[in-house]
Specification:
By secondary structure, the protein is an alpha+beta fold. It has three domains: 109 residues, Orthogonal Bundle (Butyryl-Coa Dehydrogenase, subunit A, domain 1), CATH 1.10.540; 112 residues, Butyryl-CoA Dehydrogenase, subunit A, domain 2, CATH 2.40.110.10; 141 residues, Butyryl-CoA Dehydrogenase, subunit A, domain 3 (Up-down Bundle), CATH 1.20.140.10. It is built from eleven helices and ten strands. The protein has a four-stranded mixed beta sheet with strand order 1-4-5-8. The chain has a four-stranded antiparallel beta sheet with strand order 2-3-7-6, with helices on one face. The protein has a two-stranded antiparallel ribbon with strand order 9-10. A hairpin with a 2-residue loop joins strand 9 and strand 10. Helix 1 packs parallel to helix 3, helix 7 packs antiparallel against helix 10 and helix 9 runs antiparallel to helix 10. The longest helix has 35 residues. It is globular, with a radius of gyration of 21 Å. The relative contact order is 0.12.
Amino acid sequence: MTWQLSEEQRMIQMMVREFARKEIEPEAAEFDRQGRFPVEVVRKMGELGLLGMMVPSRYGGSEAGAVSYSLALQEIAYSCASCAVTMSVSNLSCEPLLLFGTEEQKLRWLPSLTGGGALGAFALTEPEAGSDPGGIRSTARKVGGAYRISGTKVFITNGGYADVIVYVARTRPEGGNKSLAAFLIPRNTAGFQVGPEEEKMGLRASNTVSLFLEDCTVPEEHRIGREGDGFRVAMGALDGGRIGIASQATGIGQACLDEAVRYSQERRQFGRFLSSFQAIAWMIADMATELEAARLLTLEAARQKDQGLPFTRAASMAKLFASEMSNRAAYSALQIHGGYGYTRHFKVERLYRDARVTTLYEGTSEVQRIVISRETLGG
């Protein structure tokens, strides 16, 4: 199919590109080197409306839609993948409220989450429950008109800075996925503790922590949806989240291609530019082709979401292909740079590290294949 962006979508794309190149790109390497969470960048993203791009304006969102969100996230990821995943999870944390929240919950929580006044996080993964939500051990005991929540979550993006957490827990020991529920937990709740920051291979400027809850008491009105809706809340959020990671991976892939093209046209070996060697030219051709395919898959998944169509299959396809593509692109870009690419003096070293996790979080590549096969086979 031929993709034609609207004038508004192109304006958003260009606006975010200018912001990312001027405000983020010059500092991205230092953010990574120091492992420093870019608080000021997050605040500016909130002011630009990038933290609630699919949230209706009546709740404080920019109501730009999933396609514009994907385009914007690609531009942020091009300059700094850490900032991109922070933006992605911020938008993801709004999804449960949009899909399952009451009008009162939306009016109370969304304006601050979308405007940057508060940062959101999504807490699903546990030490023994990553790709399998059925293994969740966090508990939520009903006591009068409140719940007492206890448990441990791991690898929570934004967790150390988030003002409110969407937290999935089990309301009864039996029932599997049907006994899960989702809750909004403010970080100042008694019994809420943030663990030390993870020392990660890549995305070093994003915040990733464990969360420890012990008898955190939250009122019943903090529950999102009904008891038993937790699995649906999580899967609904993850479908949208996969478009976010596909967009992030596509942005990384574009940066890899641009760095490879630039270096190959500047570096001379054997009296010729690298780009004149067929081996290098064909590597770049493969990178460009796969990047274009990833971008189209990602935008198609976003289009389906915008139109209210089922998009689980499309989102998993986009996430699978784009994440694998970005890893191949990062490998090729570093290979073209040779030994220099293995040093921190060149952006491709950071891109190589940042790309790796895209095949892991929001569902591994193997999980995406399970989803795609089930959707295709009707199983």
